[in-house]
Amino acid sequence: MNLPNLKEARIRTKDKVEVKRDEYKVSDIVKNYFKDKKYLVITYGCQMNVHDSENFKAIMEDMNMIETDSMEDADLILLNTCAIRENAHNKVMGMLGRIKHLKEEKKDIITILAGCMAQEEIITNEIKSKYKWVDLVIGTHNIHKLPLYLETVIKEHKQDIEVFSIEGDIIEGIPSKRDSKYKAWVNIMYGCDKFCTYCIVPYTRGKQRSRLPEDIINEVKELKENGYKEVTLLGQNVNAYGKDLDIDYTMANLLEDTAKTGIDRIRFVTSHPWDFTDDMIDIIAKYSNIMPYIHLPLQSGSTKILKAMGRRYTKEEYITLFNKIKERIPNVSITTDIIVGFPNETDEDFQDTLDLVNMLKYDLAYTFIYSPREGTPASKIKDTIPLSIKKERLAKLNKLINKYALENNKKYKDKVVEVLIEGYADKDNKLMGYTDTMKLVNVDGNENNIGKIVKVKITDVKTWSMDGKIVD
Ligand code: SAH
Ligand code: SF4
Ligand code: F3S
């Protein structure tokens, strides 16, 4: 049993991170026990969690298990959780209630709580005292040890909690059962050292650790050989890639080397404005297989609020970077994240955000009401702004964001764009895919188009998507 500890989670050690290549093992005991049993992985949160779930799924299949999408059929249910906002918590707690119900009828279901919530001291304490029927809690730093912990669970029939607050090493060689045959997530770094004052991620994901360039490039090459058309390089702060390595190698170098593998499409998330270098912009502009799409979280348009958030850029610095990217990368689309209702955000501060949105006209934005997270500095600030005002601000902001999303999309009407067709859209039997600039497009077509990059003429545009016809 290892419990998380908030104080430890804040620590950033100078210890050298090791790359370990032979840590992942699956014993015959678990392989035999779980043979042909069914697993269900339910994922919340960001792309990082989505990719971790691909790892969990492959680990379960190494244990001879079979995936199911039905809770009723599952012998094992793993919740891969997110801690970023309160509503993410609530969803998971609701789901635990449903599983408890199921377990009353099917006693042997193994329940696992994984992901960022597992890293939170308050949650783990609650699971330990009030949710004793949850079999295993596993943190974000040790997912490769899942088979080992499950061995204990099946032998001892009691709750096991295995969460480490101080991150471990970089583990290579964890398998992945990828959701798509054409697009793949590739981790380039783990953790985050930015400690924005509102954010829980530096506590749940540990210190920044970059994977070695050759490991990343080899993964991309292998994906390309296996027919993948697109990779998304993943990290909480990809622009800071390499800063923690002993070698002189940056995100710009990594982007260039990835481009040289010749894979058709390269994306990367997320870019903190602080570390965005001119070299990076030049490389993105130079290589046609690096997509002209940048997610550049703003958070707030008020320099005062940005300072309180610990974002380390001013409104003016952000505008300069934004304009530089727009000038140097032809046809680039830029999206963002914005938080409204940070403690003591005044009407003037919020107006600054609206003014900036009016000026920069984002292609799209993900907007959130600030949610205090236990243990973060911002959660200690006394807040005088009522929730009703925060909700009004969010609605007002969303209206503006939608206006510009539609306005930007209108520029695509009657144009021919390249779309990677991923599969069928949920409705109308149409196919769906994304442009290089990350615009969702629905088209008529057939099986043969799936997995290919096709030319599409845009016939109609909406706020969130476009319709088009394949022209080649
Ligand atoms: N590493 C990324 C962000 C990851 S979290 C970056 O810094 O750009 C994704 C988004 O969730 C953030 O950009 C922020 O807008 C939002 N977010 C994070 N913590 C939040 C909180 N406590 N309340 C509301 N929104 C939050
Ligand atoms: Fe959170 Fe800031 Fe790190 Fe992004 S950069 S993960 S918002 S602490
Ligand atoms: Fe959520 Fe953890 Fe991602 S808190 S947003 S799943 S890094």
Structure description:
- The protein has 472 residues and is an alpha/beta fold.
- It has 4 domains: 6-162, Cobalamin-binding domain (Rossmann fold, 3-Layer(aba) Sandwich); 194-290, Transcription Regulator spoIIAA (2-Layer Sandwich); 292-410, 2-Layer Sandwich (Transcription Regulator spoIIAA), CATH 3.30.750.200; 416-470, Nucleic acid-binding proteins (OB fold (Dihydrolipoamide Acetyltransferase, E2P)).
- It has 14 helices and 21 strands.
- It has helices at residues 6-10, 28-34, 47-62, 86-105, 121-130, 146-156, 201-205, 213-225, 251-260, 278-286, 303-309, 315-328, 347-360, 387-410; strands at residues 19-20, 38-43, 66-67, 76-81, 110-115, 136-138, 160-162, 170-171, 183-187, 189-190, 209-210, 230-234, 265-269, 293-295, 333-340, 364-369, 416-424, 431-435, 440-443, 453-461, 466-470.
- It has a 6-stranded parallel sheet, with helices on both faces.
- The longest helix has 24 residues, at 387-410.
- The protein is globular and about 60 Å long.
- The protein starts with 5 loop residues before the first helix and ends with a strand.
- The model has no long low-confidence stretch (mean pLDDT 96).
- FE3-S4 cluster binds at residues 45-46, 48-49, 82-84, 115-116, 200-201, 204-205.
Specify the overall morphology. Answer: globular
Radius of gyration: 23 Å
The CATH homologous superfamily name of the largest domain equals Cobalamin-binding domain
Major sheet: 6 strands, parallel
Judged by helices, strands and strand pairing, the structural class is alpha/beta
CATH architecture call of the largest domain: 3-Layer(aba) Sandwich
Instruction: List segments where confidence is low: pLDDT < 50 over at least 5 consecutive residues.
Output: none
What fold name goes in the CATH topology slot of the largest domain? Answer: Rossmann fold
Widest sheet, order of strands: 3-2-4-5-6-7
